[in-house]
């Protein structure tokens, strides 16, 4: 079944009302008809199974047939703080991060980032990235749409991470996989987590030291050098495996 996200205010009296771009998608792309089943999420732990009741030019109304708490979200909120990569790699990073259960993505502009965006281009990119996050959330049957925040400086990203329980920074010169394994295994469900990933050129030593001072723990991902778009997915995959519950 296809999934659609609506605001809580659009769910009332046993009916769900879909508006916006999803209406065009239902009518013109999916060519759905009255009686077809869909899934509705309102950004919380509930999932609603509905049947389409009417399709109009600007709204689709569906009748709620069942409500359940399927527990599809991870018990911990994981934020991926991703330094801006070149090309369209950020789109892939966001898509895969959403599939792996990230609660949100923070684009970060660090010193070695090749990509430099002015305010206008930055806003355009963030809007595009949030659209990708929504599509990935629908595809992976997430109950929430992870947020892609505005682009932050390194200093702002470290301040953002300071509000989370566990702060990790994979660093290519860090040694000791046993210590990394012990640290990751010690994370418990319910703890919030920040994962800070560097750009193609890596972090400058001074940036890693700033991260240490902000409470980030350097970890190693093994003896091989991973690309920036691979490193974050590696950490998220390990955390998903460790935190996922029956």
What is the average of the pLDDT values?
94
Radius of gyration: 20 Å
* Sheet of most strands: 7 strands, parallel
Q: Please, what is the CATH homologous superfamily of the largest domain?
A: SPOUT methyltransferase, trefoil knot domain
Number of helices: 7
Query: Strand tally, please?
Result: 13
Known CATH architecture of the largest domain:
3-Layer(aba) Sandwich
Task: Tell me what you see in this structure.
This protein has 246 residues and is an alpha/beta fold. It has 2 domains: 2-68, Ribosomal Protein L25, Chain P; 78-243, SPOUT methyltransferase, trefoil knot domain (Alpha/beta knot), CATH 3.40.1280. The protein is 34% helix and 25% strand. It is built from 7 helices and 13 strands. The chain has helices spanning 21-29, 89-99, 119-139, 154-161, 177-185, 205-213, 228-243; strands at residues 2-5, 11-12, 15-18, 37-41, 47-55, 60-68, 78-83, 104-109, 147-148, 152-153, 166-170, 193-197, 217-219. The strands form 2 sheets. Strands 7, 8, 9, 10, 11, 12 and 13 form a 7-stranded parallel β-sheet that branches. A 6-stranded mixed β-sheet has the order 1-4-5-6-3-2, with helices on one face. Strand 4 and strand 5 (47-55) form a beta hairpin. The longest helix has 21 residues, at 119-139. The chain is elongated. The two termini are 23 Å apart. The mean pLDDT is 94.
């Amino acid at each position: 079944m296809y999934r659609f996200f609506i605001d809580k205010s659009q769910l009332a009296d046993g009916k769900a009302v879909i508006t916006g771009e999803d209406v065009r998608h239902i009518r013109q792309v999916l060519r759905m008809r009255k009686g077809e089943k869909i899934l509705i999420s309102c950004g919380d732990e509930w999932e609603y199974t509905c049947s389409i009741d009417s399709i109009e030019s600007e709204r689709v109304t569906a009748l709620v047939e069942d409500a359940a708490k399927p527990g599809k979200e991870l018990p911990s909120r994981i934020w991926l703080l991703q330094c801006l990569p070149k090309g369209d790699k950020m789109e892939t990073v966001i898509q895969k991060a959403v599939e792996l259960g990230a609660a949100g993505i923070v684009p970060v502009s660090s010193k070695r980032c090749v990509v430099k965006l002015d305010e206008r281009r930055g806003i355009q990119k963030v809007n595009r990235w949030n659209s990708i996050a929504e599509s990935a959330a629908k595809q992976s049957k997430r109950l929430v749409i992870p947020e892609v925040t505005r682009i932050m400086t390194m200093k702002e990203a470290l301040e953002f991470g300071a509000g989370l329980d566990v702060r990790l920074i994979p660093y290519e010169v860090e040694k000791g996989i046993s210590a990394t394994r012990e640290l990751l295994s010690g994370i418990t469900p319910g703890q919030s987590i920040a994962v800070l990933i560097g750009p193609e050129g890596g972090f400058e030593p001074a940036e890693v030291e700033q991260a240490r001072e902000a409470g980030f723990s350097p970890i190693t991902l093994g003896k091989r050098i991973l690309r920036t778009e691979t490193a974050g997915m590696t950490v998220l995959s390990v955390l998903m495996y460790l935190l996922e519950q029956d």
